[in-house]
Amino acid sequence: MTPSDKNLSQCCSSKCISPDMNWKELTKAGNIYTPGNASTYETGDWRTIRPVWDEERCIHCLICWRYCPDASIISTGGKFDSFDYKHCKGCGICANVCPAHAIEMISEDEIEKQKEAQKDEE
Amino acid sequence: MATLKELAQVEERFVGGHRLCAGCGHGISVRMVLNALENDENVVVGCATGCLEVASTIYPYTAWNCSFIHNAFENAAATISGVEAAYRSLKKQGKLKDDFKFVAFGGDGGTYDIGLQSLSGAMERGHKMVYVCLDNGAYMNTGIQRSSATPIGADTTTSPAGKVIPGKQQPRKDLAALIAAHNIPYVAQTAISNWQDVHKKAKKAFEVDGPAFINILSPCPRGWRYNTPDIVDLVKKAVETRFWPLYEVEDGKWKLNSKPKKYVSVEEFLKPQGRFKHVFAPGNEDLLKRIQEEVDKQWLALLERCGEEPELPPR
């Protein structure tokens, strides 16, 4: 279970505070009982350039995971798994520290265009 | 030394969804420090007001996947030391079963300047806590005002580089040495370019019986005005040019952790940064010389404290 799954399930409990809550429903002293619930807030839409993973080149050293400020590199069993595009802000540090050049930063506009082109083909 | 494969299995205690700028050094530093804890260890975090605190705890969200306590700008160390004292009391009374670690994060403004008295007090009282200073060399949260951690010659909004005065005129305070003078069990200075070093020092700090202090260089893309993805290269240059040496003080014994193999001029570290752009303008050669002299002076003093052979830079 990743922290975000855990938090989502915790958020369903009665002690959770949400932005659309009435003030009377707040917890005592406004305490938050759901640690790490910022993971339900998506900062991914800040991104203008997107990291794209090249599976063939990746050597699973996880240096990218180490240097990601947003904990947006998901690893499973000590291997690179995927990017968490919901939280990645597109800073480009991962692409820069990758010793195998397995991460490429591509503009979101470019990706949007590619998607549209694919749709047109279909 | 654990490998990255093992460390990646440790629970994430600072999750994504916080609102720090893209590529902020704080996110990297905090993740590295908290990653030194084991899965079954509990931790209580406190933050001095600053970018980290306001960006990670925007109500009703918290990016801290652990206990977190709010406090004012100047008293992060006092708050965490109080929590630690309460914990010890509850533990003694048998009202609390779980073990906890205590860590306070502060920026350079909340540590070098505003929080210095409470930090000094907490260190002197000998609480079993870790204080981590994330040094980005100015009050970045309020708009890049100079602090006592700002290096000499840097352009900030309250020490602007103009025709008469080229940036900050005073050299930076040597905080790690100041805290080491409290004779606490563990003081260290580290940088994210060497993650093994950060991990090792964080682990030592958490394990030591008494107060520990870690000073981490944490670049700010906005305030330093460098190309955001180059953060690791920039920090590496800070270490190589001896601007930010890596050392630790264990029970009063100074130890240099890495000695740069060749002499690199501080220019290499200053050049990629917009806040030092004026240093390379014609007519400011004296300023560059002064910055280099300051770095050399600090380096020689450190070598002497560590009991190393003094080495003078080639001229």
Shape category of chain B: globular
Amino-to-carboxy terminus distance of chain A? 37 Å
Helix content of chain A: 25-40%
Order of helices and strands of chain A: HEHEEHEH
Amino- and carboxy-terminal Cα gap of chain B: 39 Å
Q: Which protein chains make the most extensive interface, counting residues with beta carbons within 8 Å of the other chain's beta carbons?
A: A-B, 51 and 47 residues
From the alpha carbons, calculate the radius of gyration of chain A and give it in angstroms.
Answer: 18 Å
Write the CATH homologous superfamily of chain B: Thiamin diphosphate (ThDP)-binding fold, Pyr/PP domains
Oligomer: heterodimer
How does the major sheet of chain A shape up? Answer: 2 strands, antiparallel
Structural class of chain A: alpha+beta
Helical percentage of chain B: 25-40%
CATH architecture tag of the largest domain in chain A:
2-Layer Sandwich
Fold and architecture overview:
- Chain A is α+β, with helices and mostly antiparallel strands and about 120 residues long.
- Chain A has 2 domains: about 1-40, no CATH class; about 45-120, Alpha-Beta Plaits (2-Layer Sandwich), CATH 3.30.70.
- Chain A has 4 helices and 4 strands, in the order αβαββαβα.
- Chain A has helices at about 5-10, 65, 95, 110-120, and strands spanning about 50-55, 75, 80-85, 105.
- In chain A, the strands form 2 sheets. A two-stranded antiparallel sheet of chain A has the order 1-4. A two-stranded antiparallel sheet of chain A has the order 2-3.
- Chain A is extended, with a radius of gyration of 18 Å.
- Chain A starts with a helix and ends with a helix.
- In chain A, about 30% of the residues are buried.
- Residues about 1-15 of chain A have low confidence and may be disordered.
- Chain B has an 8-stranded mixed beta sheet with strand order 2-1-3-4-6-5-7-8, with helices on both faces.
- Chain B has one domain (about 5-305): Rossmann fold.
- Chain B is about 35% helix and about 15% strand.
- The N and C termini of chain B lie far apart (about 40 Å).
- Chain B is of the alpha/beta class and about 325 residues long.
- Chain B is globular, with a radius of gyration of 19 Å.
- Classes of the chains: A alpha+beta (about 120), B alpha/beta (about 325).
